[in-house]
Amino acid sequence: MIKLIASDIDGTLVPDGTSKIDPNMLKVVDRCLRNGIKFVGASGRQFISIARLFEPVKDDIYYISDGGGLVRDIKQVYSANAINPVNLAAMVKDVKQLDNCDIMLAGLDWSYAEDEGEMFRWVRDSYRFHIKAVGDFDKVMHEDITQLSIYKPGNCEEVVNEWFTAKWQNKYRITSAGTMWMDVVNMDSDKGNALRALQERLGITKEETMAFGDNVNDLGMLAEAGESWAIGSAREEVKAAAKHIAPPLSEYGVTTVITEYLDFIGADK
Q1: What is the reported pTM?
Q2: I want to staple 41 with a disulfide (CB 3.0 to 4.6 A). Which of 50, 98, 158, 181 is the partner?
Q3: pLDDT by residue (tens digit) across 196-222?
Q4: d(CA 45, CA 100)
Q5: Could you give the C-alpha distances from 215 to 49, 50, 150, 219, 232, in angstroms and in order?
């Protein structure tokens, strides 16, 4: 029997960069909780952004945020995997040499940009992040920064992979988080490692876990779930890795699959 359900957010539960979650999904999560099934939102997003999506149930679910760099519940941080500040400063300098890319750094409570440009406004208004413009990233290098995110509309992955990825991929995990984002985290900062740590904390096995994703940064998480689902609109390599294919985001695939499972086991409505 499934005891834990984990789902990616952008591209899986909501269109990239929005807060347009299926209202029925919130009812499904509440139904899971009432029937003893725990739920975790897993994303490259900031913790507070995930919590705001799940407002009616936010106090009762778990969070894997910043691409696996932070694991917590609503009150308590379980683990935070900070990037070495010397290397972080060097990577920031390199990203500034890329063609028209913006940078966001993820701290434990706030995310940071250097100015209030397009990326800042979009992250603040659409993703609903706690984000500050700090003028110079040197001001926050003393903090625990768990993720460096690179933003470029349209072809972020292509631009980052021109040379940045080759330079840093042996030291850091660099993954696509959608067409506009590439995320950089520690090698052991991964949604899969984070999910495994949460499973151990909760006493739940891989076989008792269901997970949903759509992008390459979800592969580790899907590998830690006995019932792994790629939504129908996922990247092909994600579909190939998953045990099952759900309907696409446009058809609320995650809501559909979980509802069918709850009905199958006779869960209370």
Answers
A1: 0.86
A2: 50
A3: 999 999 999 999 999 999 999 999 999
A4: 22
A5: 19, 17, 16, 7, 11
